[in-house]
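Progress report, Aim 2. The chain analyzed during this reporting quarter is listed below.
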Amino acid sequence: MDMERSEGVIAPAKAAESGWRETLRFLLILFIATLLLRTLIVAPFNIPSGSMLPRMMIGDYLLVAKWPYGYSRYSMPFGMGGFDGRVLEQQAERGDVVVFYYPGGGADWVKRVIGLPGDTVQVKAGQLILNGKPVPRTRIADFLMPVTENSPCRFLDAERKREVREADGTVSCAYPRYRETLPGGRSYQVLDQMIGPADETEAFRVPEGHYFVMGDNRDDSMDSRFPIVAKGVGLLPADHLVGRALITFFSTDGSAEWLKPWTWLTAARWERIGKTY
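Predicted structure tokens for the chain:
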């Protein structure tokens, strides 16, 4: 009888211990798989500013592909990389939208690659000059950006600010928009609000192991046209690349409230989800 009672007590204890071990084993495997995924394949990134309008809006969440340019210490999660240079390095292409570790420290930024090693880049009267030749630019319809909680109508020149009220009552900010086409045929849209300090630059020679990057919102982007001491990017070292923008997996207009779950759906900008780069 005693033996039967002992077996009745011991068996559940062993089962519970085995259950905890299996749970811990599963969590460990999940952690390692997530770490490998974030390190080698993709990582999430959110857009905090309007420097990449019209392609990217504040509140966009995207996945960044980690493999296209190889791996450096800056592309490692949680700052785990302790090596110099890049492993399996591949050069970025003109027109790539890249996420990189800001050379001034502290955060990841996103811009578009304009100049490759050996290129000369200059801006004259707002016109991009690449290797001595103007990059073709065509005026297209204004970009109408809906004004929301996280996307105000921000114009550097207040006199040029223009808002449009649409039939459904939506208020949009109207930005002058152009299409630029790089050598090789790759094209994208840019905003040009005014002729300002960033529209007249020296000729920058891109050295080996660096890139010249710019924001698509040309008058509202601190990029390679500005040195780090002026809170710009300067010429971006290649080993600072984190990855290439891949796809927008979520977007919000900023009106959601954590304690009101139904607002998570109404705040979503569904039309932006699934956009690739």
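The chain is about 15% helix and 30% strand. The longest strand covers residues 171-181. These observations will guide the mutagenesis work planned for the next reporting period.
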